[in-house]
């Protein structure tokens, strides 16, 4: 999550009794919960291996002290007229349960606890376990529902647990500075500001920012997109060496930008080269803590900013960083409007197949740290097999200066090998842009020498294999295997394999009637669309060659020309 310092003091404690409105972001998660979606995409799980003499009573008391301090950790939700309201409960003891477990069974035990659904109506919205796995060795597991927390908040939670543990283990009371507001005040303030029209300027900005930009990013999927997201995901990790990270930081300084902006620009270039699309949206989480009173408050503040990427192949990487910097700063200035409200106002086509507006995301994470005197603390990987996006990249700055990059991907859409290749290309691209920031984006390589040689060798082998199936033949096999499955998505247009096959047949009949066949060239003067794909398949089915054209190309040099989706042949 991108750090954004609080800039103004606007909040006051409302002191209201009884239920109060949920924030817009909380409402989205509540509605998902009401629809039966209580999946792992809505939880923050953290597991820490603690090696050394641990004061279990002090740790349990520290957790309870943090729960007492932050109302959102003891909040439940009720429905009134179909809308969610927050109900703040009294401080309580979470009861840190200690479980004896054999080391070989630890992973299974952790997964079982993480997978338990939360009941937002009865609470609590968090659970903690302490596994005793050996002499002076424990694993502390903390799981909090996203409706009560975010990445920034988790840093606060672990810092305050550390402070409270230190006090309690020394025989003192756990004491914290008084919070002037709680999250219910933030949610009410957000609702009041929206009702008063204070977000009108933000809405105008985002409408203009996203005007004309496709709402769905057409990525090269390995599998047809299911009719509904399962949120099943996997992730893989690679490390950017400290030397490469330092080079990127130096480039950022030259450009008057942050390292995050340089990394985001490189990610946009990667997606543009991978998808063949130069105008798309990348989700960028932001802290969204505009008021100074919220800096030390736990709650679901994080907002998703739909940042428009415009990648000009003729420009340099330095030019792209400048555009990303400008777009990012503008987005931060308008981060107050909840993404959920923005979606409602812009009203893109809603479907269960993909997220609205944002299908890929890029995020800077921080690893929350627990400090326990005399105890070594090691973070364990307990990331559940889920993802909220088609593809998302989180990176963490390591103490060594290296960057750990985690690629999360929807396993319904991509094979691991495809994402591994993408991650390798991103790592290579980061080295390339740091060394050649003035080079045109069109010529910056994304394949290292080894992968380029392998791709060229594969192409040569396929050309030499005269028995290899042609593209039209392979498409016919796909039509026979899954005629009713989606084959292409073009905005609001979704064509099944059978429908695309029928359109390709129509193209083939028309160009054949006009004499197209072997040794002829058919020009395709069409935008990137479902019709372009049908035209390509139809021309190949006729035995001719196709040539994608710029509309300004002299048409008289061609044997045939397809001008539009209405089969304007000439």
From TrEMBL:
Highest taxon listed in the record's lineage: Bacteria
Matching CDD domains: LCL_NRPS-like
Family annotation (Pfam families): AMP-binding (PF00501), Condensation (PF00668)
InterPro entries referenced in this protein's UniProt entry, alphabetically: AMP-dep_synth/lig_dom (IPR000873), CAT-like_dom_sf (IPR023213), Condensation_dom (IPR001242)
Alphabetized GO MF terms: catalytic activity; phosphopantetheine binding
Region Disordered, residue ranges: 1-22
GO terms, biological process: amino acid activation for nonribosomal peptide biosynthetic process; lipid biosynthetic process; secondary metabolite biosynthetic process
Domain Condensation: 21-453
Record's compositionally biased regions (Polar residues): 1-10
One cellular component (GO) term of this entry: cytoplasm
Residue span(s) of domain AMP-dependent synthetase/ligase: 475-567
Matches recorded under PANTHER family: FATTY ACID SYNTHASE (PTHR45527:SF1), NONRIBOSOMAL PEPTIDE SYNTHETASE (PTHR45527)
Protein's name according to its UniProt entry: Non-ribosomal peptide synthetase
Biological source species: Streptomyces haneummycinicus
The organism's taxonomic lineage, starting at the top: Bacteria, Bacillati, Actinomycetota, Actinomycetes, Kitasatosporales
């Amino acid at each position: 999550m991108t750090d954004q310092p609080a800039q103004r003091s606007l909040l006051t404690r409302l002191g209201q009794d009884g239920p109060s409105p949920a924030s817009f972001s909380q409402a989205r998660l509540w509605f998902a919960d009401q629809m039966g979606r209580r999946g792992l995409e809505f939880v923050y799980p953290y597991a820490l291996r603690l090696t050394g003499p641990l004061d279990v009573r002090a740790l349990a008391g520290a957790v309870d002290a943090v729960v007492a301090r932050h109302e959102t950790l003891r909040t439940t939700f009720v429905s009134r007229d179909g809308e969610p309201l927050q109900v703040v409960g009294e401080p309580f003891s979470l009861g840190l349960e200690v479980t004896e477990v054999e080391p070989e069974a630890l992973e299974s035990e952790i997964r079982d606890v993480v997978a338990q659904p939360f009941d937002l109506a009865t609470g609590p919205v968090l659970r903690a376990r302490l596994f005793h796995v050996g002499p002076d060795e424990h694993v502390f597991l903390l799981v909090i529902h996203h409706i009560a927390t975010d990445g920034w908040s988790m840093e606060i939670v672990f810092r305050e647990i550390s402070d409270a543990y230190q006090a309690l283990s020394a025989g003192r009371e756990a004491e914290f500075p008084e919070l002037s507001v709680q999250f219910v005040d933030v949610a009410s303030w957000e609702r009041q500001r929206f009702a008063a029209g204070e977000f009108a300027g933000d809405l105008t900005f985002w409408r203009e920012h996203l005007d004309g930009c496709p709402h769905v990013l057409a990525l090269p999927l390995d599998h047809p997109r299911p009719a509904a997201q399962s949120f099943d995901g996997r992730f893989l990790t690679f490390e950017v060496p400290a030397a490469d990270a330092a080079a990127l930081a130096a480039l950022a300084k030259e450009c008057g930008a942050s390292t995050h902006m340089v990394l985001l620009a490189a990610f946009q270039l990667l997606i543009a080269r991978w998808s063949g699309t130069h105008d798309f949206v990348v989700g960028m989480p932001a802290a969204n803590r505009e008021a100074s009173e919220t800096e030390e408050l736990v709650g679901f503040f994080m907002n998703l900013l739909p940042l428009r990427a415009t990648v000009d192949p003729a420009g340099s990487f330095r030019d792209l960083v400048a555009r990303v910097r400008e777009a990012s700063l503008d987005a931060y200035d308008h981060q107050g409007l909840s993404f959920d409200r923005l979606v409602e106002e812009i009203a893109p086509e809603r479907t269960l197949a993909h997220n609205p507006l944002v299908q890929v995301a890029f995020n800077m994470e921080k690893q929350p740290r627990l400090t326990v005197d005399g105890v070594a603390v090691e973070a364990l990987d307990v990331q559940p097999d889920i993802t909220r996006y088609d593809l998302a990249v989180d990176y963490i700055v390591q103490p060594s200066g290296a960057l750990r990059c985690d690629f999360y991907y929807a396993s319904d859409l991509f094979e691991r090998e495809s994402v591994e290749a993408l991650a390798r290309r991103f790592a290579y691209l980061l080295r390339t842009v740091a060394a050649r920031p003035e080079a045109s984006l069109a010529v910056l390589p994304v394949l290292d020498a080894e992968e380029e040689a392998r791709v060229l060798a594969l192409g040569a082998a396929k050309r030499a294999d005269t028995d290899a199936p042609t593209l039209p033949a392979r498409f016919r096999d796909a039509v026979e295997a899954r005629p009713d499955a989606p084959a292409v998505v073009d905005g609001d247009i979704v064509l099944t394999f059978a429908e695309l096959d029928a359109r390709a047949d129509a193209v083939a009949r028309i160009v054949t009637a006009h004499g197209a066949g072997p040794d002829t060239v058919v020009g395709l003067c069409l935008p990137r669309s479902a019709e372009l794909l049908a035209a390509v398949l139809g021309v190949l089915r006729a035995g001719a060659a196709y040539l994608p054209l710029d509309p300004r190309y002299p048409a008289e040099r061609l044997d045939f020309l397809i001008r539009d989706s209405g089969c304007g042949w000439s």
